[in-house]
Amino acid sequence: MLPSQHYRQPDAGAVLSALHDINTRHGYLPAAEVRRAASDLAVPLSVMYSAATFYALFSFKPCGKHKLQVCEGTACYVKGAAELLTKLQSELGIQIDETTEDLLFTLKRVRCVGSCGLAPIVRVDDETFGRLTLDDLESVLAKFRNQ
Ligand code: FES
Question: Could you say which architecture CATH assigns to the domain 66-145?
Answer without folding.
Answer: 3-Layer(aba) Sandwich (3.40)
